[in-house]
Specification:
17 helices; 4-stranded parallel β-sheet; SAM-dependent_MTases_sf; Rossmann fold; single chain; alpha/beta; O-methyltransferase domain-containing protein
Amino acid sequence: MSDSITKNSVPINLSIAVRPNKLEAVPALLQDITLGVNALTSGGTVDREDLLTKCRFLLRALETPRQTMVNHLWAQIGSISAITFGVDCGLWRLMTENGDNPQKVNDLASALKIDHALLQIGEDEYCSTNYTKALSLPEIGHAYLALIPEMSAAPFKFHEYCRERGWKNPTDSKDTPLMYAYNTKKDVYAWLREVNHDGHFNDYIGAYSFGRLPWMDPTIYPVKDRLITGADNNRGKPFLVDVGANLGHDMIKFTRYFPECPGRLILQDLPEVVSEIRGMDPSIEIMSHDFFTEQPVKDTGAYWEETGMDMIMMTVCASEERTTKGWHELLEKKMGLKIIKIWKAPNRGTEGVIECELA
């Protein structure tokens, strides 16, 4: 058997599959990690996340392409399958209730009334970790039940969708990879309404910002300087509209940051979503609204709407997470707005706040 393959006349030596991905980067990464550990003792979330990123880079540099492939196709998929199984059958909740003592497979299986062979993957005894304890929380565990069965087929079948359409970028909201993967004519929002019977997706949205600074934090966007100072103090005038707000997680945080902001605070989402809201701060108005239709609230101080990651947006919505140039193209050339400034969140990759006004 040849030790190389040829594609388009470019020879590739097969040994590349078992060589580290980027061994030459390891010394510098180790130095950065050592410095990061020292900074972590006096730092906060930003330092920890930066250190975590460097550790991931180190892992990728040390792995061989074969190890990376096995991790993607076996370890990660197998882990997600096991985690989702544990959430659905109540395993993580039971282990958390049992405390930190070692727990035997047979005891867990008997209590859950499931085949002990489904839990037996190694030694017969397990202990909880912070991760498995967190999986007992609806906001963490239910995320697996929401995204894996209800949305994951879209990115996994994305290549099939593109092949059948001549490898064109999906831009038609009536023909998305999610519709193709699940054989439905419903867009992602209608699809989630149909399959999200237990509110799992709402729980996931609630957990998305755990441990993260909200957009209105002064280190991300200076709300006081940009929106409050000089604002009309007419309490009857809309001040902030949260479009597609789900159960109001961001708006609740906003009232904690700025309890005396001028004007009305309006939370908008679909009727079936806002109907699930309970115990909302009375200063926040709840309004049913489909953001694909005309905005009923006019002359407001600010609108807030959030998007997600690039491949997920492309495969479930036929939309995208844009570059700075892409946002200027969309908002200024196509929507008639003027971008005042893009406020980047510290250590959050592509996340930030785009401040716009009417052109």
